[in-house]
Design brief:
Blueprint lengths: L1 H17 L2 E10 L2 E6 L2 E4 L4 E6 L7 E4 L15 E4 L4 E6 L9 E6 L5 H12 L8 H6 L4
Parallel strand pairs: 1-4, 3-8
Antiparallel strand pairs: 1-2, 4-6, 5-7, 7-8
């Protein structure tokens, strides 16, 4: 019995050790233009964490589209937040102060189980952009 319990504890510890932390920078200017998250598209494994890093002032990260059962998030301006992604699917998020400037990003966790809904949400969001109107479409085309 001791061996079974020890093996179970070791297995749980290994699963936690395999989860990765990814970083997304919140920037005034990046490789995709002005008011961007970098990277704008990120593919991660279920259980990974994404940390939104404050590089420039007055940005936040807030989810707009999440897969069914996934927790939404909303950071305050200038707040670095970490989001653990436990549900497979496509997540779309924005910087609320700069949403109309197309400051948005996409995270794919495992299989894109909610791709149809995510595309609808991304299309609706893109209609509110006053610049870089195709940025979110470019990120969504990377979802596989």
């Amino acid at each position: 019995m001791k061996h079974v319990v020890s093996g179970l504890i070791l297995s749980i510890a290994c699963v936690g050790a395999m989860a990765a932390e990814h970083q997304v920078k919140m920037l005034n200017t990046g490789k995709d233009g002005t008011m961007v998250f970098e990277p704008g598209f990120l593919k991660v494994a279920k259980g990974d964490t994404v940390k939104f890093i404050k590089v420039d002032a007055s940005h936040n990260s807030a989810s707009v589209v999440t897969p069914p059962g996934a927790a939404a998030w909303k950071g305050k301006p200038d707040e670095e937040i970490s989001v653990k992604l436990d549900q497979e699917g496509v997540y779309v998020y924005v910087c609320e102060p700069h949403k109309m400037m197309a400051m948005a990003g996409v995270i794919q966790v495992g299989k894109p189980v909610n791709l149809v809904e995510a595309k609808k949400g991304a299309d609706a969001l893109s209609k509110s952009f006053v610049m870089s109107k195709d940025r979110l479409d470019k990120y969504m085309t990377q979802v596989k």
